[in-house]
Amino acid sequence: MSGKTLVITGGSRGIGHATASRFADAGYGIVNLSRSPAALPGVIDIAADFADPAWAEAVAAPLCAAITESESICLIHNSALQVPGDTAEIDIDGLRRSLEINVVAPAALNRVVLPLMRPGSSILYVGSTLSQRATRGMAAYATSKHAVAGLMRSTAQDLAGTGIHTACICPGFTNTEMLQSYGGEALSHLASLVTQKRLIAPEEIAELLFHAARNPVVNGSMIQADLGFIEP
């Protein structure tokens, strides 16, 4: 690909799919890494299971071939695993999988893509409101998303002077397939917890990611995108 390229993980649904569509509309070439294809015209889909320790070696050659001529690259770490459970009964295997997919995979993908990134490129992390706080029954997920925040802040420091910027976008309750699985009553309750009394549309997070990709002033920022939680 020449010109501007988006490399995104988990671009087949939810926030990832909305983001791939938004960047495609702006003329970016799109490379999606996920277990299933993004089903968007012109997208290069590369199959990747981030729970498999061998994924990075498997995708490196086709990914680098797809992006090597890019003028600039926006790398968005969107894929995530959410394993519920509180601290006293935490699923240890689930915690390991959460860290592997939510933290280790982005770090590994950075190593593959960074050598091909030119000034004007960006690395964006999709965190969560639980990147900066915690709630009951989500110990593994909150732990992994706090680690994502640390990885983003390290990215900002380590890439100083390269012309590559980074940020962590932290969505609140977003109307994705994962959230919809909780059912209508639960969704209504979640909507009642924010000042706007509704769920976030995936397209709203996609627009914020697009804005962050084009604005180096956000470098190192944690950007809350939650419609305003109502304080207890």
CATH topology: Rossmann fold
Task: Tell me what the CATH architecture is.
Answer: 3-Layer(aba) Sandwich
What percentage of residues falls in helices of 4 or more residues?
25-40%
CATH class: Alpha Beta
What is the number of domains? 1
Please work out how many helical segments DSSP would assign.
Answer: 7
N- and C-termini, Cα separation:
49 Å
* Alpha-carbon Rg, integer: 17 Å
SSE class: alpha/beta
SS strand fraction: 15-25%
Question: Which consecutive residue ranges, at least 5 long each, have pLDDT under 50?
Answer: none
Using the alpha-carbon principal axes, give the shape.
globular
Tell me about the biggest sheet? Answer: 7 strands, parallel
Q: Identify the strand order in the major beta sheet.
A: 3-2-1-4-5-6-7
Keywords: Oxidoreductase
Family: Belongs to the short-chain dehydrogenases/reductases (SDR) family.
Protein name: SDR family oxidoreductase
Describe the structure.
- This protein has 7 helices and 7 strands, in the order E-H-E-E-H-E-H-E-H-E-H-H-H-E.
- With 232 residues, the chain is of the alpha/beta class.
- The chain has a single domain, classed as NAD(P)-binding Rossmann-like Domain (Rossmann fold, 3-Layer(aba) Sandwich), CATH 3.40.50.720.
- It has a 7-stranded parallel β-sheet with strand order 3-2-1-4-5-6-7, sandwiched between helices.
- Strand 4 (70-77), helix 3 and strand 5 (122-126) form a beta-alpha-beta unit.
- Helix 3 packs parallel to helix 4.
- It starts with a strand and ends in a 7-residue tail after the last strand.
- 41% of the residues are buried.
